[in-house]
Hints:
The chain is an alpha+beta fold. Helices cover 36% and strands 12% of the residues.
Amino acid sequence: MSTLPSHDPSPRSDSLDVPINFHSRSPPKSERFGSQDLVLVPSYDYGLSRCLRSRPPECLWEAPCNFSTMQPLKALYGAVGMRVEKHDIRQFFQETLRIPDIAHDNITKELESMKREQQHDIETVGKLYQRLQKMYTADTSIAESLR
């Protein structure tokens, strides 16, 4: 087993440093996954060895890692070691693929799903309500849509 010299600027071996410089344009329809636009979604438990493919409207960029009604891409890619804080990665998902951050309607759908599925994880519910409260405080027009 060889070791890297201490001055080696290489990234850690457990992180992915995938250069994404193709954010400026989408590939032609024929180069995508069949007839649909799909996003590769790593598995939280199995990483890149068991990926899913989801449509962009089923994905969020910034969302809690245990979000079940949508795919929380930043959390999932971060869990497999991708450097999600890099600008190119965020730009690719949010600007090229137009995948949004979590919004109040995503939180209410998640809470409705948890109620329907009888998931009573108080900590998760509390965090979702706290996030909703922060959104409400930042934009009071959200209150009207929640009524």
